[in-house]
Amino acid sequence: MELFSIRGLLFLWKRVEEDDVFGLAAQLAYFFLLSLFPLLIVLVSLIPYLPITQEEMLGVVADFAPGETMEFINTNLTEIMSHQSGTLLSFGIIATIWSASNGLNAIIRAFNKAYEVKESRSFFVSRGIAVLFTLAMIFVFIVALLLPVFGKQIGLYLFDTFGYSNLFLGFWNMIRWLLSALIIFIVFLVLYWLAPNKKFKCIDALPGATFSTISWLVVSGGFSYYVSNFGNYSAMYGSIGAVIVMLIWFYLSGIIIILGGEINALSSYLKDDSC
């Protein structure tokens, strides 16, 4: 029985219902929303030590965030940072990272449910893993910011030397999206490999990582287009319209992330079943 045969898809749907994927995705959306601003505060606090600006950092988020959510994020982040006394890179950052790890802690629980394993690790070990993943996500996000910045500067220098600077700009826009997709794929691959309380090879996480990367890019782009052109959430929800849009985006992202875990768990089960 292959993973994407009719029988395999029916079995996957059965697992989706049994594991309450949509309910877990709603929980993830809630934790993602709680984690968003603590995570952004940490990143903004690191900006003085990096060759990037706050606008460039938020521009990466804006490439995927739907509708007017970026205006909401910008406004609230500016207000939060204006009330901070001194730098956040102190003892307070520990509490910030702990709070930001809520979303990843919820993902670990969802993956364990997909693999039908109990969390045998202690609370502090499990939470420590979530914190480490959060720190890794911050590092990956910084790399994702620095690669385009330095890549563009190097590319412009090389292409300008040969008089092809205009050609490079079009080429760079294509490469930038491919680079973003590659980084997202690596994040998903590592997350699916290390987060569950189950040992398996990195290659076994490929099906879920591939599915989640493609699905997340397509769904984020499609939902952003829908919100910008058809969905008028502000008319229905008023001033919290941007929050509702963000929650729906997080909810859809949660479904995709958990489905990727379910696909990996099902693939592992089918592999064992065929032996």
UniProtKB/TrEMBL annotation:
The keyword Magnesium does not apply. One of its GO terms (cellular component) is plasma membrane. The chain crosses the membrane at residues 21-50, 88-108, 129-151, 171-194, 206-227, 239-261. InterPro entries: Virul_fac_BrkB. Keywords: Cell membrane, Membrane, Transmembrane, Transmembrane helix. The keyword Cell membrane applies. Pfam families: Virul_fac_BrkB (PF03631). It is found in: Cell membrane. It is a multi-pass membrane protein. PANTHER family: INNER MEMBRANE PROTEIN YHJD, UPF0761 MEMBRANE PROTEIN YIHY. This is YihY/virulence factor BrkB family protein.
